[in-house]
Design a protein that fits this description.
Helix 3 runs parallel beside helix 10 and helix 11 packs parallel to helix 14. The strands form 5 sheets. Strands 4-10-9-8-7-5-6 form a 7-stranded mixed sheet, with helices on both faces. It has a 4-stranded antiparallel sheet with strand order 13-14-17-16, with helices on one face. It has a two-stranded antiparallel ribbon with strand order 1-2. The chain has 14 helices and 17 strands. It folds into 2 domains: about 130 residues, Aspartate Aminotransferase, domain 1 (Alpha-Beta Complex), CATH 3.90.1150.10; about 260 residues, 3-Layer(aba) Sandwich (Aspartate Aminotransferase, domain 2). It is about 40% helix and about 15% strand. By secondary structure, it is of the alpha/beta class. Strand 1 and strand 2 form a beta hairpin. It binds ligand 7TS. Ligand 7TS binds next to helix 4.
């Protein structure tokens, strides 16, 4: 079993006391929103700016070569982290949101009016709205795979949703509200049997579960660096080479072209075709170091630790009257979202914050899901490998007091 205390010294931000008299120990339980960064990532970014900063793929000088090597090395680290076949299948983006927008803007140009896209009811807005925009633009039809009362998808219902006009199924690996982990490999097999491509939103899955895109066989995988110990503003779109090759460019600009004439252009090869403009080199460098760090811990260990913390949380929450937890009882990721009787989630979160416990409150960018479960907002505690069992206790105790006092 993983010892979270061993890692906490790498995260100076966690070791602080809050409040005017500095008497509240920080308990950071908002990791589904963003994780903290280890010193190795922070230092790699500083080092990059001190030693190597330059634009990439352009300057024929030593710093330009250094920055390019670092950037491409980071791409290769990410390739290996998710077990992709080729490093040119790794496109650097701003994050999950941009990765999904890229596919929604570009892949759908190959669709015909009336073609269908299937989404689930548990998607984050960033895996809904880009498809709505594409549907509006190109007269596509969106179909919804509804969520069952236990917070899971009924695989039996998928066959009926995938018809002759379905081109794509876009779904999350792990729900940021329910904690549900969807069986992506099985779902992808069913979709592929019907000739349907699959895009997976890995924003919550990739940071917490071992990822092997070749084994999962997904066509696209989107994820964000900042939810996996990397910097903000960097993310990844993995796509299978043949699909990315067929897709038109997403944004125009420098780097994404091979030649430009006054009457047109030839797009560049992968991955550059989808990386217009100066990229986030510092972000890529930081992400490369973050994936090294995560691999040194082991994703199986991270998932097992998530399960330990979330099971303790679910048991504790069960004992509190008026608390209703959303999502499945087991087989879920390291987060728990709940409502507390008639109390407003923001009041509960503000109370917890007074005692140093940082949780998220709101609709978690999943309006349709909140509606499905009849809640306006929920409080969510979400964990990572540096969270301890003592922190879970502290959260539960403080929540118990909140329910008495509010
Ligand atoms: N998909 C899922 C499942 C997410 O949880 C999030 C962010 C995104 C996509 C978007 O990621 P971004 O990095 O592009 O913004 N989720 C959350 C959250 O639960 N609280 O804050 C952000």
């Amino acid at each position: 079993m993983l010892d979270p205390h061993k890692f906490r010294q790498d995260f100076p931000i966690l070791d602080q006391r809050l409040g005017p008299s500095r008497d509240r120990k920080l308990v950071y339980l908002d990791n589904a929103a963003t994780t903290q960064k280890p010193l190795s990532v922070i230092e790699a970014i500083t080092h990059y700016y001190r030693e190597s900063n330059s634009n990439v793929h352009r300057g024929i000088h030593t710093l330009g070569e250094r920055a390019t090597a670092l950037y491409e090395d980071a791409r290769n680290k990410v390739r290996s982290f998710i077990m992709a076949r080729h490093s040119h299948e790794i496109i650097f983006t701003r994050g999950t949101t941009e990765s999904i927008n890229l596919v929604a803007s570009s892949l759908t140009r190959l669709f015909q009016p009336g073609d269908e896209i299937v989404l689930t009811e548990m998607e984050h807005h960033s895996n809904m709205v880009p498809w709505f925009l594409a549907a509006e633009r190109q007269n596509l039809v969106i179909r919804i795979w509804h969520v069952e009362d236990d917070g899971q998808l009924d695989i039996g219902k998928l066959n009926d949703l995938l018809g002759p006009k379905t081109r794509l199924l876009a779904l999350t690996w792990m729900s940021n509200v329910l904690g549900t982990i969807n069986p992506i490999k099985k779902i992808t097999q069913i979709a592929h049997d019907k000739g349907v491509n699959v895009l997976v939103d890995g924003a919550q899955g990739v940071p917490h579960l071992p990822t092997d895109v070749q084994d999962l066989d997904v066509d696209f995988l989107a994820f964000s660096g900042h939810k996996m110990c990397g910097p903000m503003g960097i993310g990844v779109l993995y796509g299978k080479e043949d699909l990315l090759d067929r897709m038109p460019p997403y944004q125009g600009g420098g780097e994404m072209i091979r030649t430009v004439r006054l009457d047109g252009f030839e797009p560049n090869v992968l991955p550059y075709k989808f990386e217009a403009g100066t990229p986030n080199v510092e972000g890529a460098v930081g992400l490369g170091v973050a994936v090294d760090y995560l691999r040194s811990i082991g994703l199986e260990n991270i998932h097992a630790h998530d399960e330990l913390l979330v099971q303790k949380t679910l048991e504790g929450l069960k004992a509190l009257p008026s608390v209703r937890v959303l999502g499945p009882k087991s087989g879920r990721g390291g987060l728990a979202a709940f409502s507390a009787g008639s109390l407003h989630a923001h009041d509960v979160a503000a109370y917890l914050d007074r005692f140093g416990v940082a949780v998220r409150a709101g609709h978690h960018c999943a309006h349709p899901l909140a509606k499905r479960f009849g809640v306006v907002s929920t409080v969510r505690a979400s964990y990572y490998f540096y969270n301890t069992l003592e922190e879970v206790d502290q959260f539960l105790e403080t929540l118990g007091r909140a329910l008495d006092d509010l």
